[in-house]
Amino acid sequence: MNRRHLLASLPAVFTAASFAAGTDSKLRVAVIGHTGRGNYGHGLDTMWLKIPAAEIVAVADADEQGLKAELKKLKVEKGYADYHKMLAEVKPDIVAIGPRHIDQHRDMLLASIQAGAKGIYIEKPFCRSAAEADEVIAAAEKAGTKIAVAHRNRYHPVLPVIAKMIKDGAIGRMLEMRGRGKEDARGGSLDLWVLGTHLFNLATYFGGAPKACSATVLQDGKPVTKADVKEGDEGIGALVGNEVHARFELAGGVPMFFDSIQNAGTKEAGFGLQIIGTKGIIDFRIDKEPVAHLCAGSPFNPALKEPRQWQPITTGGVNKPEPIPNLGAQVASHETAGLDLIAAIRENRAPMIDAVQGRETIEMVSAVFESHRLNGQRVSFPLKTRVNPLTLL
To answer: What is the pLDDT of residues 68-88, one digit of tens each?
Structure first.
């Protein structure tokens, strides 16, 4: 997809004028990774090679061999073991924070903001707690730094198409949304953190901001206790539970459910979100293309005269060929997100998926543990408890 075609396909995100204003100079990108500690996320380094308006000028990686490999891969000369030194010397326009281990995110974000970065693109989940997110957002707002979070499916241009379908009654009245994680070895609380945040960010697009949550967290079928809490993988901090069941109340009046059970069955089969209505279901398969399908007909009537079929939804419509070439690759590579961040910098607006939305997903995760800590009590947003609730058990 060429840039003009991409811009035409995303009228709510990009305008040609935003790029015309800055085509004479490329924005300088510095990449932060950490080989063996989250690496470079899901391609948050290579994405910038696909964006003509950006130029990678330096890479930081505390792992010596990892840094050598990365410099070769990106064809960049400036490499640093310490990202603080890189930021001080290079003073980039954009910082790409790649590591998936989120115990590093707060410090990397604050260092990038303090170094004067105009924009930051960061791997999800955003931070370890609402408190960390609060601190980062306050610093970014003061400095004028634009932060975008890598919930890449939210940048997909089919979402406004689906929103209009729902508004026009394609599935009747919306009744609920149901999401499941990959439910592999990470099933339960780790699944909630790593993959549930994708679903929360998607659900709030259609259902509005979270208003309240009630949840249960189990370990081998029993409610978790303080004795079960351990240090979680991927730098998450205190973590517990191989089974999670949560219900969220959203501003739009439609509840969203999230469930994850460790090793529940077929690998990744359930990973996605379903919007269930009186006259049909819209199903999202995360990181797949096409990303959504429609199953028309009442989900509660198994005796329909015609068999129900799942039909793909593209930017062209239901069961229509996708008119945008290579759209799946564009979204998966984060190119759409990178273009949006650049446009946000040039237009002085918030990125499509900004730090506030990143914090919202973290609060939704925290609300699950907070509700469980309070014996399944309904907890409202914004959460009063800003730290990881498992540390308070």
So the answer is: 999 999 999 999 999 999 999
